[in-house]
Design brief:
2 copies of one chain form a homodimer. With about 190 residues, the first copy, chain A, is mainly α. In chain A, helix 4 crosses helix 5, helix 5 packs antiparallel against helix 10 and helix 9 runs antiparallel to helix 10. The N and C termini of chain A lie far apart (about 60 Å). The interface between A and B is large, with 49 and 49 residues. Chain A binds a DNA duplex (26 and 26 nucleotides) through helix 1 and helix 3.
DNA sequence: ATTATCTATAGATCTATAGATAATGC
DNA sequence: ATTATCTATAGATCTATAGATAATGC
């Protein structure tokens, strides 16, 4: 039942990808190691050959999801004439709202992160620093401090609006929240 | 071991209060029924005389936490000359950040709410409607639609900034996030 | 007599480990 | 020979229930 070294690396990678999606969909506590391995096409026991603990995987899967988000931010920003508007338009969509498994980790698991281990939190901290640096370079503003401040508050608005749009049980209100977030960033 | 009807009502109330705090501190999945009852000074089995399920308590505890927040918003808004600034100042503090158990449910459990039952989500929806109505009445703005939009995006900024400030592993960055959120609301 | 609470436990689930198995890589 | 994966299971924990207990409220 052994596989090639290359295949093993692929398997490991698939576990991380599967976890990155399922954690965002169901929460860190919403899926167990056994189910996760089954979704990745492997058996329960094999997990601990790749990771030392579930927390270890949580950290790695989170880091990967965050890296993807940053890459997407960069590519979206490069596209349009007004980068911040472009990011807000891409972020605050019903598609993103309805597919948390492929979306922003902060919106999907933000409040859970603060209750988890130092490795996840370090990954989030690193991501936020990079994202703020990126956005601060795109925002118009008098001083560097002002641009950083605008970058941070913009990101906060996006995350907060997505959390609220997902929490709400009413499609019209949910859409109103997405629209209000976009309008505020573009104002 | 029976207690008076009045005492039983008090016990039930204490379970809800304890849950409202512990859920916000540790997450809905972070504390079990047994530990929760112990914290409330009762035994595990007694729980199901008061509630039909843990989900039932989650809904009731969430509704209570949200009601408290709305009351606080109202009282803070009445205090100052600039109500929105007053709310931002009261919300985005290190004290709030470091005490999620007594703070905003959306910041503490926002991303978990979307993964839970219809009763919790209905409570959040009702709260958001009330909070937006309240804030929209306090915001300056040309049209009613503009004031609503500003109310929603302001609340989103507060929630997002608190989630980010708590997720981050660095005190300076965390403080910078709180400050940026405040500056943005007050601008 | 009713009922709020207690003790005890069923049944499910979860993380992690031990040891067997079989294919790779030297 | 090494090692990636598998089967099986230990040990802990979690929700919910059953039945006993003892104090209230008629």
């Amino acid at each position: 039942m052994k596989v090639s070294r290359e295949q093993a690396a692929e398997n490991r990678d698939r576990i991380v990808e599967t976890a990155a999606q399922l954690f965002r969909e169901r929460g860190f506590e919403g899926i167990g190691v056994a189910d996760l391995m089954k979704e990745a096409g492997l058996t329960h026991g094999g997990f601990y050959g790749h990771f030392s603990s579930k927390e270890d995987l949580i950290a790695e899967a989170s880091a990967r999801a965050l890296m993807r988000s940053l890459a997407l931010f960069t590519s979206v920003a490069e596209r349009g004439a007004d980068p911040l508007s472009a990011i807000a338009s891409a972020y605050l969509t019903s598609r993103h709202r309805d597919n948390p498994g492929e979306g922003c980790l902060l919106a999907a698991l933000g409040s859970d992160v603060s209750r988890h281990g130092p490795t996840v939190r370090r990954a989030v901290t690193g991501h936020l620093r990079s994202a703020v640096d990126l956005l601060a370079g795109l925002v118009p503003g008098k001083s560097k401090a002002r641009r950083r401040q605008k970058a941070i508050s913009t990101y906060a608005t996006l995350v907060g609006a997505m959390v609220m749009a997902r929490a709400v049980d009413d499609r019209a209100l949910s859409q109103e929240i997405l629209d209000a977030g976009q309008a505020s960033v573009k104002a």
